[in-house]
Amino acid sequence: MKVVFMGTPDFSVSALNAIHQFHEIVMVVTQPDRARGRGKKVTPSPVKKRAVELGLPVYQPNRLRDPEAIEHVTNAGADVMVIVAYGQILPKEILDAPTFGCINIHASLLPKYRGAAPIHRAILSGDSATGITIMKMDVGLDTGDMYRSESIAISESMTMECLHDELSELGSRMIVDVLDGLLRGETQAVKQDEEKATYAAKISKAEAEIDWKKSAKMIHNQIRAFDPFPGAWTRAATTKLKVFASVCQVEDTAGMPGEILAVSRAGIQIQTGEGSLLIQEIQAPGKRRMTVEDFLRGNTLEKGVVLLSKEETQEA
After folding, report:
1. Structure pTM?
2. What's the pLDDT tens digit per position in 97-114?
3. 64, 99, 167, 203: which has the highest count of C-beta atoms within 10 A?
């Protein structure tokens, strides 16, 4: 099968590798090279890097809706287009061009979590499972008919990075099966249940600020959902600290929300609105992420210090 592959971030690379093993990729479409990281060095996307390694032709239009871009992509001669976190909306001319249409790998069990940030939202909501849906794209936002869905468990310690990697691998296996099924004429799509649809809005950095008045469970989910990026954060006096690797403490504790109850090599125990949380990794401004034990070698955080809650930070 001749395939046009569209993708941009790390999440897309596993699918590119899998499709390349079994089908002919006639073009890889990805976002233009951009300035990334602290040094703002212009860098190709992970998908472009891998496509170049595989010797595949790469196309990077600024706007896929431009007539020149539409003509270039639709003339590639693809039987199907596979889209994985590409980052631009596809015009109808492209959606209608391939024989088997445009197929998307979406990181949720649709119709739940349509939209930009399904992995973050699943962890933030404390879900125990999510999954991958392979669907035929239409002009709506993740509203197309579904070829196949498969679920995956979310453990209470799983971070966004871990879940992201597992879903990426799952999606790469599923897309090969779906393409094979389409070739054999054995794979049929079913409609989504619109009444069960929910939306996963894009994550904002403001959401990463911790409100210690919330329960330990909610803050634990927040820390996991934003690990590694953007990183849940709090403020000790004037210092902004990102926190990672938390453990919920179930025993009764007395203290005000944000108060440090204990400091040890194992971590920093902090009172929340309901229960306490043990923080095991910290990142200070301009520093690398490190264990609490390493952090305390050059920094001081003592029992009784109160980390500011969201409203208090805004008032400061």
Report:
1. 0.92
2. 999 999 999 999 999 999
3. 167
